[in-house]
Structures are given as C-alpha cells and as structure tokens.
Specification:
The complex is a heterodimer of chains A (about 130) and B (about 575). Chain A is of the alpha+beta class. Chain A has a single domain, classed as Alpha-Beta Plaits (2-Layer Sandwich), CATH 3.30.70. Chain A has helices spanning about 15-25, 60-65, 90-95, 115-120, and strands at about 5, 30, 35-40, 45-50, 70, 75-80, 100, 105-110, 125-130. In chain A, the strands form 4 sheets. A two-stranded antiparallel ribbon of chain A has the order 1-9. The radius of gyration of chain A is 14 Å and the shape is globular. Chain B has helices spanning about 25-30, 35-45, 100-105, 145-155, 165-170, 190-195, 215-230, 235-240, 250-255, 275-280, 320-325, 335-350, 355-370, 390-400, 405-410, 415-420, 440-450, 460-470, 475-495, 505-515, 520-540, 570-585; strands spanning about 10-15, 20-25, 60-65, 75-80, 90-95, 110-115, 120-125, 130-135, 160-165, 180, 185, 200-205, 210, 285, 295-305, 315-320, 430, 430-435. Chain B folds into 3 domains: about 5-205, Aldehyde ferredoxin oxidoreductase, N-terminal domain (Aldehyde Ferredoxin Oxidoreductase,  A, domain 1, 4-Layer Sandwich), CATH 3.60.9.10; about 240-420, Aldehyde Ferredoxin Oxidoreductase Protein, subunit A, domain 2; about 430-585, Aldehyde Ferredoxin Oxidoreductase Protein, subunit A, domain 3, CATH 1.10.599. Chain B has about 575 residues and is an alpha+beta fold. Chain B is globular, with a radius of gyration of 23 Å. Chain B contains 22 helices and 18 strands. In chain B, strand 10 (about 180) and strand 11 form a beta hairpin. In chain B, about 40% of the residues lie in helices and about 15% in strands. Classes of the chains: A alpha+beta (about 130), B alpha+beta (about 575). The interface between A and B is medium-sized, with 29 and 41 residues. Strand 2 of chain A pairs antiparallel with strand 13 of chain B, so a sheet runs across the interface.
C-alpha cells in the first residue's frame, strides 16, 4: 500500500507530513521521520517530496548485508532493528531518497506504509493507494 | 517543563571573540515560558538600556517556545534587540523555517553579542557552530543572491532557515529588515541594521530531533484535533484562500485602509489591487511556514520583459500581503497590481521594511507637494502619487545615495519630519511608521502604546470592528487594548502565529502546555502575560520611553476612519485610562 506523490506542484512546504511520519513512528519531531520535503533550489520554485513508494523488489533490502530489511507483503520493507548494524547501505540504495536516518539510534527510519503522511496532507499532494 | 527538553538550552555566540557556549536556563523557561517572555528577560540580562543600538554591546536575541515543533501553527521565532529605529525595545517576529529549525537544533534561544572585524555568517547545525567568512557576500549586487550562495555551501536542506540582510542592513538603514526563506521577514524596527552593525551577513540554523511529551496517546489525539481545526475551520478560511489581502476591499469600503498618506478617504481603482484581483491575475504559488497547514503566504508571479531584448522575459515570484498593498499601494496612490509588485521587488532587493518604507515615501510625496522638500534635495526625482518609477528610484537612493536628504530618510520618518518639518502629516507612533489600519481609536492608540508600536501588539482594529456595531466607552476601550496585549504575550511566548489565535484559546493553550508538563491554568497564564508585558514596559521606560510625551499624529483626526471622524477628546480619554492601566503594572 504505497504512498504516491500525486502532484508536488501543490506542495506548500508545511512539513505537516514529516511530523505525521514522526508520530507514526511514535515520536514527536523530525528525527524519526522518513518522508522528506525540500525546496527545488529556493522556495519560489516549489517543493519536491521524497517518500517510499513501496517497491515490490526493493533495492534497499537487497543492499542490506545483514538481512535486517525483510520484504513486506504488498510492497516495501520491514526493519528488524536487532539485525541492523547501521551501515547505511539501504539509504544509498534508495534512489528516491525515501529512507530517513535516526542519529540517536544510528539506524534507518523505514516507511511502515501506514499512509499517515497522505492522510494529513491538506493539499492532496500525496495519495495512499490501497493495492 | 519536561526534564529532558532541550528548550532550556541557550546558545551564546560572541562575534568579537569568535566563541560560543551553552547555558541551561530552566528557571527562565519555567517562569516565562519561552519566546517573547524569555527574550525580554535575556535582553534585560544582556543589554544595558542606555546602549547605542548600533554598537557591539547591543545583543541580538532569538527565542522559540515549548509549543514549537510540538503543535501545529506554533511556527514563529521572536527576535529581540534594542531598536536602532526607535532607540527603544525592538521586537520582531518571523516564521519561515526559523522556529522549527531552532527548536530542532536543540535550543530555546540564541544570544548573539559583540561585533566581527570582518563580514561573516554563522552556521549552526545542531551542536556545531561555525564562523564562516562572508567578505565576498558583503556588497553583492543584484543578480547574485546571498540565499542561493549559502544554500549551496551548507547542509540541512529542507530543515534549515537562512536569515540574511540586504544592502539596507549593510548600510545600517534604521528600518532594514532581515529576510528568511526569501519571503519571510523580521521586518520592523531595524533588526537588519543591527546585523549590519555587527558585520553579520547571515545566520543558518538546522537540526533534527525528537521531543518528549507527557502522554503520547493523548497528545496525538489533541494534535489531530487542532490540525483539523486549522485546516478546516471557517476561522482560518480567509488566510487559506485570498490570504490577508482579503481585507483590502472590506477595509476600503469602511474607510479603514489609509490612502495617500491618509490625506483622503477615497481613491479610484482600489479594486485593481484587491485580494481578489491579485489572486485572479497574479497568484502563482502558495507556501507555508514549517509546521503550519494554513499556507497563508501568497506568491505573485510577475512576468517582466527585458527592455533591450525582444522575446526575453523573466518571471519573479514576490510575496504580497495586506500590509504591503497598503504601504506600497494605497498609501502611495498606486492602484495597479503590477505597480505594487514592482515596489515590493524594489523593497525586497534592498532589504528594507516595507511598511516603514511606504509610509516614508507617502510623506515625501506630500512634503514635496507642499514645498517642504524640493527637487534639489531629491536629486531630480519628482515624487508623485502613483509614480512607480520615481518611488523605485527613491527606494534605491535611500540605501545608496550619499546626499544629505536621502541619508536622513534612512533614519526614519520621525527624524526627517523633525528636521525638515511636516510633523502634522508624519504618520509615526513612538518613532515607528504607521501600520495599515485607520479603523478607529483602538488601532491608533494600540500603535502608540503597544510595546512594539505595531498593529500586532493589541490588534486594535478588531476592537474598532466591534465598536462599529456597538459603541464602546473609553474605559472598555482601554481595557480591551490592555487585555489583548497581555494575552498576546502568551501566544508569542509559545510561539504561536497570531493567525491561529482563535483556535488557541486560553483553555486550549493550557491543555497543550499540560502535555509538556507545564501546570498553568488560564488564570496563571494571564498572570504570566501581564508579567511579561510589565517587563517589556520596564525596559522601554529605562530606554527613555515617556508616556507623558507621546502623541497621536494630527492627521488621523482629519480624515474619516471606519468609525467616522475621530474625536480628539475621546481619544485622550481612552489614553488616560490606558496609561493608568500600564502605570499600575510598573
């Protein structure tokens, strides 16, 4: 059940999705958020949104040397934190730049495909598609 | 407050010694909450009231509050300093990415002292603070942007604020602003000049962290409820749709929008610069401050041809607001949206405060008409209502001309009208130029006595609106102005954007704070609000602010307002009542 970026042109850069992602990871703030919003080289040009599209054959899982990322039924991956050594290969493997990094734990923040970001986006930039 | 919260950390930066250190001040944040409350205490601690505002001893203080990064629309940073424009308390608020960046970097406040020998910019990424050379950024001409250059050099994309000054700040024009994220500003009271006096070109702040709340489940429910209200409530509708320019037409109908230096209550063609027209013809994009779903920032796309080359155009995006349409539109008799946008661009390029600049230009026009100033002084420019070309040139000359008259204009309207005459139509309050509401007694008396001489101190126009329906007597007027300003100290200590004030009522604020382990009921909040107002006023008086010797501009009694012709006697009665209330605090 991936989240799709439907129309980044409508993104106002409010970062409400990033805070929603943090809450979905049971946190308050941005350290535990994996979705990212950045301006396209200055705010007048608008924003880009980087979010996990729930690949069926995810390169991040293939890049993990410790089998800490398990391919999830319906797309995306699950993180087995106790297997993860924090090497960061998964982050490099994701061409969408959709994996976050928690500096306190030194481990990746992986999308849990919950759709909270899309649900809280007032401008319908994101869509949570049920597959 | 929550024990582990990093809000209590204050980052001190000494530009003279290129040193930085952190102090933990739980005492300040538990007594004064954050934002404006903590900032005024830090100003008292770090700034002698007698200090020259452009000397190294004037500190720059930025503060955020407990709700930033935790609840939506808590999106503002408070800046405090001694104002080079008024010689008095300087306080300015801005959003953009600043508040979230500061909170996420792990600080509740930053105090910047001293002066660098050479131009520099500071970059703060979490615990790391760097002093970076900015000699190349100083004196940059149009076409190369400080923001773009710093963006390329620094990390933290998406999570950072870049506060910077333009030429006006470098030249220490007393109403120079600080721009952040291209479209937001610490606009009023000359923070830009204080940056310039310290050889400080810019500040970058970024960070990322998780914060703690007392009861996560309850927090999540409460958060979602507030988010829903902010996104869907009718109370927020005007900010969503047309933005603040929604007020242009209603205020013009009620005669509340000042026209041509408030010399008349009517102008042709005001509908051409209404919120509706801007939206229909120019609105190109809407953006938001970090952690605010409202997206009130409206960017107009202005397509400009190159005069010397056919088939070449550039499109610039400019943010417009009610205040800018007033100051650079109606006030100057400019009633074409393109004209207003071109003046906004000129002001942005220089890094000036738009309101002060517009009011000064309006006075210049009238003073020229009356023969108080002449063509020789203006270096050949003839200021005329509606003449966008002439105004653009004057804006540049305020910053760059070495002529005596333009150098004087760079010190503000109070200075100029004291020197050249024309005080009767000089629209200043405590040396600060007038905001865009000629709605009645509440607005004007609010500007005169507000701690910042701003329309945001007590929103007097809202009280005037009530008075339009049901008359308010002098006692009640004073009380409403006073109480609103006290309550606003709390909102700006949290720091909530005032646009969210109808959602963040005292009971909501109390509830939000309880989730952060602040045990403050509504009464306790009002007490703290009064206390903060008191501390600000104490500082003002130490700086020489004299309540007995300030006056309302004569002009406001000559042109009808939303409440009709204003009566001087009645205004004086309200002032007497308000003074008593403020005195009782001191």
């Amino acid at each position: 059940m991936p989240v799709l970026v439907k129309d980044a042109n409508k993104c106002v850069g409010c970062l409400v999705c990033m805070f929603s992602c943090g809450r979905a990871h049971l946190a308050v703030g941005l350290e535990s958020s994996c979705i990212k919003v950045r301006s396209q080289g200055g705010i007048s040009r608008g924003f880009s949104v980087f979010v996990c599209r729930g690949c069926e054959d995810p390169p991040c899982a293939r890049a993990c040397p410790e089998n800490a990322l398990v391919v999830r039924k319906g797309g995306g991956v699950l993180l087995r934190e106790d297997f993860c050594t924090g090497c960061g290969h998964c982050v490099k493997a994701c061409i969408l730049d959709a994996i976050g990094w928690n500096n306190n734990k030194n481990k990746p923040v992986i999308c849990i495909q919950c759709g909270e970001c899309a649900k809280n986006c007032h401008y319908k930039v994101l869509e949570h598609r049920k597959t | 407050m929550i024990k582990e919260d990093t809000l209590k950390k204050i980052l001190y930066i000494d530009l003279s010694k290129k040193k930085f250190w952190v102090e933990e001040r739980e005492d300040l944040f538990s007594q004064f909450i954050g934002g404006t409350g903590v900032a005024i205490k830090l100003l008292q601690e770090n700034c002698d009231a007698q200090v020259d505002p452009l000397s190294p001893d004037n500190p720059i203080i930025f503060a955020v509050g407990p709700l930033n990064g935790v609840f939506p629309i808590a999106s503002k940073t408070v800046a405090m300093f001694k104002s080079p424009h008024t010689g008095n308390l300087g306080e300015s608020h801005a959003g953009g990415r600043s508040a979230i960046a500061l909170r996420m970097a792990g600080y509740g406040a930053i105090v910047i002292k001293g002066k660098s020998l050479k131009p520099l910019y500071i970059s703060i990424h979490g615990d790391n603070v760097y002093f970076r050379d900015a000699t190349t950024l100083w004196g940059l001409e149009e076409g190369v942007s400080t923001g773009a250059l710093i963006r390329r050099q620094e990390t933290g994309a998406g999570l950072r604020t870049i506060m910077r000054i333009g030429p006006a700040g470098e030249k220490k024009i007393t109403y120079a602003s600080v721009t952040l994220e291209t479209y937001r500003h610490f606009g009023r009271l000359g923070l830009g000049a204080v940056f310039g006096s310290k050889n400080l070109k810019a500040i970058v702040v970024s960070g990322k962290r998780d914060l703690k709340v007392r009861d996560f489940k309850r927090y999540r429910e409460y958060y979602l409820n507030l988010l829903k209200q902010l996104a869907e409530s009718d109370k927020m509708k005007k900010y969503h749709e047309l933005g603040t320019p929604a007020n242009v037409m209603p205020l013009s109908l009620s005669r509340g929008i000042p026209i041509k230096n408030l010399s008349t209550d009517f102008t042709e063609g005001i509908e051409n610069i209404s919120g509706e027209t801007f939206a229909e013809k120019h609105l190109g994009r809407r953006i938001a401050c970090s952690h605010c779903p409202v997206a009130c920032i409206h960017l107009a796309a202005l397509r400009k041809p190159y005069e010397d080359e056919p088939y070449f155009y550039r499109t610039v995006y400019l943010s417009y607001d009610y205040e800018l349409i007033y100051a650079l539109g109606t006030m100057l008799g400019v009633t074409k949206a393109e004209g207003v946008l071109r003046l906004i661009e000129a002001v942005e390029e220089m890094g000036l405060d738009a309101i002060s600049t517009g009011v000064i230009l309006a006075w210049v026009t009238e003073a020229f008409e009356k023969g108080i100033i002449n063509e020789k002084m203006t270096e050949g420019i003839i200021p005329q209502w509606g003449n966008v070309e002439a105004y653009s040139e004057i804006i540049k000359k305020i910053v760059f001309s070495k002529g005596e008259f333009f150098e004087d204009l760079g010190k503000g309207l109070d200075y100029v009208s004291s020197k050249y005459g024309g005080k009767d139509f000089s629209l200043t309050y405590g040396r600060n130029e007038m905001p865009g509401y000629h709605t009645g007694y509440g607005a004007h008396i609010g500007y005169l006595f507000g701690a910042r001489h701003s329309h945001l101190d007590s929103a007097g126009y809202a009280i005037d609106k009530e008075a339009m329906i049901k008359p308010i007597d002098e006692k009640e007027y004073a009380e409403k102005i006073f109480n609103e300003e006290c309550w606003r100290q709390i909102l700006s200590s949290l720091v909530i954007c005032f646009f969210g004030r109808e959602i963040y009522t005292p009971s909501v604020v109390s509830e939000c704070l309880s989730l952060l382990d602040y045990n403050l009921n509504e009464e306790a909040l009002m007490d703290i609000g009064r206390r903060i107002y008191q501390e600000k006023y104490r500082f003002k008086i130490q700086c020489g602010f004299d309540m007995e010797n300030i006056q309302l501009p004569k002009r406001i009694f000559e042109t009808p307002s939303s409440l009709g012709n204003l009566n001087e006697d009645f205004a004086r009665k309200i002032v007497t009542n308000l003074k008593e209330k403020i005195q009782s605090l001191l």
